[in-house]
Amino acid sequence: MASDVVVAKKRRVTAAALPARPRDAEKTKASILKAARDEFCEEGFKGARVDAIADRAKANKRLLYHYFGNKEALYEAVLLDSSTEIRRGERELRISQYDPVEAVDRIIRFTFRHFLANPWFPRLLSVENLQNARFVRKIRNVDEIRSPIVGELQEIVKRGHELGIFRTDVDPMQLYISIISLCYFYVSNMQTLSVVFGKDLSQFALIQDREAQAVQMVLDYLRTKRA
Q1: Which of 86, 137, 140, 226 would you label with 201, given CA atoms 20 to 30 Å apart?
Q2: Where are the domains of the chain?
Q3: For residues 136 and 118, what is the distance between their CA atoms, to the nearest angstrom?
């Protein structure tokens, strides 16, 4: 009987010495990912610190290493998570159900609004470009970060041509890069452009104008007959 009491006490002491386990592992992982994303966007890859990420997430640093490994692995997880998020949104568009003009319109507006709603995304892309895309190259399942929009644009342009409203000499990859560029630059350079032009480009009316112009520019290009 006495030995049972001793064993029970030892168990209580041992349990007290161990760090408390999080009740929700997925929630903790998500908090760490968000904190890491913010740290990498603000400090860059080289400037980011694991201690700072743990503090931001209010998580035990040992848990961070347990879930993600080291700093590089955590950064790769952030890249994959952010890319998966936008690709999921693209798939949910289901643009094949719309006529060619509306389909293109929806792709552009989705892309522009995603950048606006997630200003960290352009910053994260800039961070990875400074690394010469060395971490993106390490992602094993490239299909998870590859946009489905390129293939869908190919079909949209084909349907538009069959209807006599779109030109034929359109490279879907180049078209998508143009769409991204029209949306990306405004958001990623909003602060500096606001100073240069003496206007607050974050104003809703100016954002609407920019979105509408991006749509019009792409559609005008697609409707232009080849010389």
Answers
A1: 86
A2: 23-69, 76-227
A3: 19
